[in-house]
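Pair request: fold both.
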Amino acid sequence: MTRRLTPAFRVVLYLWMPLGLLVAWWFGPSEKALYFPSLKAIVDAFNREWLGNGAKQLRADLVPSVQHVLIGYAIALVLGILLGLLMSRVATLYNASLPLITFFRSLPSPALIPALLLIFGLGGNFKIAIIAFGSLWPVLLNAYDGFRSVDELQLDTARTYKLTRAQRWFFVMLPAASPQIVAGARTALQVALLLMVASEFLASTEGIGYALNLAQVNFDTPGLWSGMLLLGVLGIVLNLLFLAAERALMGWYIGMQAREAKA
C-alpha cells in the first residue's frame, strides 16, 4: 500500500532544491566575479538599477514591455480564434491560406524584424506587430484543430433547437474547442515574452530588452543578471495570471476531468 505524503513533507520536497541552489548561489561565487556574480551582487544591482530613485527605471522599462506583450498577445488571441473558426468552417479558405500559413509559421519571427522596422518604424507599433505575428500561429493552429474536432452530433442538436449560426459558434463550438485553444494560448504567451525581449534587444530605446542590451554593452554583468531576474519574475507573474484566467474560464472542464479521473 502506497503511503500518502503529508502536506508539510510535500512542501519540503518541492522547495528543498530551489532553496538550496539559492543559498549556494548567494554564498558561492565571489561578488567580484566577472561573468557569474553572486546572487547577493545581483540583488544589490536589482535594488540599485530597478528599485532605486523611486523605481523610476522600473516604470520606464517594465511598463512599456508589459503593454507591448499584452496588446500583441490579445491581437494574436482574437485573430487566431476567429481565423481558426472560419478556416474550420470554410474549406475553400483553409485550402487557399494553407500555403501562406505553412510558409509564415516556418519563418523565424525575429527574421522579420528588419522588414517590420521599415513598415512600422522604431516604436511601440513595431514591437506589438512582431509579438502578434509570432504568437498568432500556436493559437490559430490549435483553434483550427479544436473547431474541427467538434462533434457533428452536437451541431445537429443545436440546429434542431434552432440556434442561429452565431449562437452555435459561441455556445457550442467555442466551449468544445476551448481546451485546445487554451493549450495554444499557453504556448503563445511564452512566444510573446521571447519576442518582446528580442524586439527590444535588437531595435528599441526602452523596455527590459533594451536595458539588458545596455548592460551588456557597458559590461555591467550584475546589471545584466538583474534584468534577467526581472524577466523571470515577469514570466512567473504572467503565468500565474494565465492560470487564474484558465481556472475561471475552464472550471467546468477541470471539474469534468477530475470526475472522470475518480470514476
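--- second member of the pair ---
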Amino acid sequence: MSPKLKEALEIYQINSPVNEHELVFCNKDRNPLDPDNLVKRDFQSALRMAGLRKIRFHDLRHTAAALMIAVNESPELVKRQLGHSSIEVTFDVYGHLFPSSMDNLVGGLDRLYEESRAG
C-alpha cells in the first residue's frame, strides 16, 4: 500500500463513525460488509454514486496490474502482487501490456545517443 493511500484511509477512518471492528468500510449498522452483497449492492452502488460506469469487481484487479506495468514495475513484483503461481501466468494474462524488448532496446539506444550529444 502506498503511503498516500494509507494516509487517505487513516483520515477516512478517523472521520468515520466508530465501530467495534475498527473497519474503514462497513455497513450502515457499522458491521463488516456482507461478501455476498458486496459486489451487487455496495460496489455497484458506490460506482453509481461516483458517477462511474458499471464494471465487474474483478476489473479492479486488472486495473491494478495494468497500473503496475504502466509504471514499469518488474514482472516478478507484478506476479507476486497478483499471487500468480508462475511468471508464465502473469505473461499469459498481461504480457501484451509489458513494453516489448525491442521498444526498450530502441528507446535505450535513443537515450544514449541524446546523452552523448548533450555531453
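Observation on the second member. The mean pLDDT is 88.
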